[in-house]
Design a protein that fits this description.
This protein is of the alpha/beta class and about 400 residues long. The chain has helices spanning about 20-30, 55-60, 75-90, 105-115, 130-140, 160-165, 190-200, 265-275, 280-285, 285-290, 295-300, 305-320, 350-360, 385-404, and strands at about 35-40, 100, 120-125, 145-150, 170-175, 205-210, 230-240, 250-255, 325, 335-340, 360-365, 365, 375-380. β9 and β10 form a beta hairpin.
Amino acid sequence: MDNAILCSSTLHDVKYEIRGQLANRAIELEKRGYEITSLNIGNPGLFGFRTPETMRLAMIENLALAEPYCHQKGIFPAREAVVMQQQERGISGISAEEVFIGNGVSELIDLTLRALLNPGDEVLVPSPDYPLWSAAVSLNGGVARYYDCAPERNFIPDLAQIESMIGPQTRAIVIINPNNPTGAVYDRDVLAGIADIAERHGLVLMADEIYDQMVYDDAEFVPMATLMTNGVCLTFSGLSKIYRACGYRVGWCVFSGDLERAQSYIHGMELLSALRLCANVPGQWAVQTALGGYQSVAELVRPGGRLYEQRQVIVDRVAESPYLSMHAPRGAMYAFVKLDERFAGRLNDQDFALELLENMHVLVAPGSSFNTPYNDHFRITTLPNNETMHKVFDRVDSLLEQHA
């Protein structure tokens, strides 16, 4: 069509298959009457995980205070609660002035990259990554360069490779820990090595820690900001996952480290935050209660807890399957599962995901949609109950048996 209205060329390199064509096809199938088991999104509320009641009450009790716009950085009680949490974790030298509340971490990823990047600037992003990071880099004029978190290394970064990729236009390194999509949890030595690289090269370190308390067995979460004092670290977290409050749309970003060096950057964030007026106010009133109250997620991730046991079902079913393999997730709420090598060249992750949806009515996210150089993995959330997960793997094995 000659007069077609085309979308912006800035979207050409942007993809988000988690809610892309497969998800749209799932909606079409549901409209036709099919029951679809959707494992493509980590959305706790859809699987019976409730936000703690104290958070709901805190929000309701402060609704009258939530009607006006608030400060562009967020309400003071929420920002102060974030500061106190950071201080308890050993991060010093910060105040509420270094905390920005956003409409989820997603908005803050966009704002922090917009405030930092000039056209052509490079950001080192893990592969696989949460694809919003790649998209936000591209949309803000930057170039995402991928450092490998390869399956053969248990999805742990290679420090030498990261350092070898740094060039004159490199501005930042992104860390996702605990990791989405792989479930990897980085140990202290790896994180300290990345912090050292960032400090020596004057790079901003962006630590996506939205799953910070969601770790299993002997895995230890180490806050990146505790390891970086001579550089600039941005810590991202929020209410969505740990507190099962995705719909509240409340996230935060904390600037720490060499704050004097970051003053211009912080001023840029203040400007962008002011332009969008403020984040969702009602949800912010739940932050102080969430961070200062009982941390119920601890019950969910220990043996006997629902998240732990559902994760274990996936570990066991993958181990039993002749067609699948996996590094057991040590954190977050996802499993990154590998198709057996016998399917190489015959069944890639996109074809598998489409066939699984069309024939078995199970929706998963293809691994390559997380910006991997390989196409033999798929990601599922660990949120469904045990009965549902057993049914899913029965269907997965049945489909793969046909191809084997």
